[in-house]
Write a structure and sequence with these properties.
The chain has two helices and two strands. β1 and β2 form a beta hairpin. It is mostly helical. α1 packs antiparallel against α2. The protein has one domain.
Length: 64
């Protein structure tokens, strides 16, 4: 049972780091080009919300 909880917490930390990176991009208004195309800021807004929700979910499930 402890291995499952540890795996969920590690996943939660990974999702939290991803959410923080998206938030930093939003705050700094950093421009990102992929394949010569500019990635809009709203993509990071969606990524931030999704990653944050996933992190919260992982931490919540690991405590049960």
């Amino acid at each position: 049972m402890k291995d499952k909880d540890l795996a969920l917490r590690v996943a939660g930390v990974v999702f939290l780091v991803v959410a923080i990176m998206h938030l930093l991009r939003l705050l700094l208004r950093a421009q990102i080009d992929v394949g010569g195309m500019n990635v809009r800021l709203y993509v990071s807004m969606i990524g931030f919300v999704v990653a944050l929700l996933m992190a919260i979910w992982m931490f919540k499930v690991s405590k049960k």
